[in-house]
Amino acid sequence: MKHAEPQSPVSFVANVARLPHKGLPVVIAADERQRAALAAEYDLLSVESYRAELLVASWKRNGVKVSGRVEADITQACIVTLDPVAAHIDEPVEALLLPEQSKLGREGFEGGGEIVLDADGPDSPETFSGDTIDVGALAEQFFGLAIDPYPRKPGASLKAEADDQPEESEFQKKLRSLLGKS
């Protein structure tokens, strides 16, 4: 994945050429304009708060590990009633990145070498070019994945009223009796 897409509203470019030994702490607290841009990008009614706390650290010889969490308070439209639904996002951020020219990233795919991935662990390393990584855009990806795609107001249901139900066909009656006996 290349980081040449449109710039994230919460972009924060970290120079990873010379990271401190203990890592580089990054805190991104979105202002009103950034929150409005996030709301527009993810089709939300509003983003009341957005904060990412990350640690950018060296990984292996020339890779980078980004870890931390992103927290946000958002308001979405209920998919049934379109009423506002408030939600809190508290999502861990975990990513490994390797320089494009890194052997470590290529060996597993080109050389037939084995890369062991833990299903519960971090994803396979992504690549970056140059000396910088937009860790803000990375945190935003985790934020985007944590948003409920089908927000519902408590008690809202997609079922039609019982009066609107058409008469059950013979096939539906037989099917119901078969399902009832299983």
Topology:
Layout lengths: L12 E3 L8 E6 L2 H10 L4 E14 L3 E15 L6 E16 L3 H8 L15 E3 L3 E3 H12 L23 H12 L1
Parallel strand pairs: 5-6
Antiparallel strand pairs: 1-7, 2-3, 3-4, 4-5
What does this structure look like?
The protein has 182 residues and is an alpha+beta fold. It is built from 4 helices and 7 strands, in the order ββαβββαββαα. It has helices at residues 32-41, 103-110, 135-146, 170-181, and strands spanning 13-15, 24-29, 46-59, 63-77, 84-99, 126-128, 132-134. The longest helix has 12 residues, at 135-146. Residues 154-182 are annotated as: Disordered. It comes from Mesorhizobium captivum.
Low-confidence stretches: 108-112
Structural class: alpha+beta
Main sheet: strand order: 2-3-4-5-6
Gyration radius, to the nearest Å?
23 Å
Oligomeric organization of the protein chains = single chain
Mean pLDDT: 84
SSE ordering? EEHEEEHEEHH
Shape: elongated
What is the β-strand count?
A: 7
Count of helix runs: 4
Indicate the proportion of strand residues. Answer: 25-35%
Largest sheet: 5 strands, mixed
Distance between the termini: 48 Å
Estimated helix fraction: 10-25%
